[in-house]
Sequence to fold (273 residues):
Amino acid sequence: MSKWVFLRGLMRETRHWGKFPELFRSMLPEAEVTLLDLPGNGSLHTLKSPVRVEEMTDSCRRQLLSRNIAPPYHLLALSLGGMVATDWAMRYPDEIAACVLLNTSLRPVNPFYRRLRPRNYPALLALGLSGLLNRNVGRQESLLLRLTSNQCAQQADVLADWISYQRDHPVTYQNALRQLYAAIRYRAPAQLPKPPLLILAGSADRLIDPRCSQQLAHQWQASLATQASAGHDLALDAGYWVAEQVRDWLASSANAYSECRNPPWKIEARKRS
Fold:
């Protein structure tokens, strides 16, 4: 069995994965999936969100150890969660078997105007002001769903679920700002993280420019796959495709490892002896 840890992004919690964990398990039956909340979100919404990605990483490690879930882990992480996964893989490489990053952007590889598309600034600013003065949960979640999903933005049931999550586990305006600040200040390593890495992106991401994922893959010489119609919430818009990409990538990695252990020239040498 392989231990998978799923990490969400800014202001999101484990329930925002929706049906994706079940789909993932159905396509990778050997996977044991654990869903974690970042401090300030979901089950940890009463905590103060750290202003450093490194502190978020340490929180995730403590959560797993408290549940007696020992490494190595496979990480599947979206957006801000991808920064946590990157930091984890860099600082504790022996704990990570593999990383899958979904629609992640990192400084300094990606310029600020691609990490958050400028056309979204007015809407997000208005949302921030309304949240500071008099939070309208329905308006907030409707905007976030519209920005992050191309497939579900008009689905009333998805929006109703998101509104209920926020009402159950409200993310404070202060924690949202702290998470955003942590994301802005985190700096990506220049070198490729040691664990195997797959980068997945939605080409129709309206929140973050998909070229961010392309630049990361180029700098780190990592595997990259893109989905033409999916938005920022890749697991929501194209969950089957994500699980399929992970399954195929793991299979190809296993085959490559097997070939390295038994290269053709060794087989030929045994035949001639």
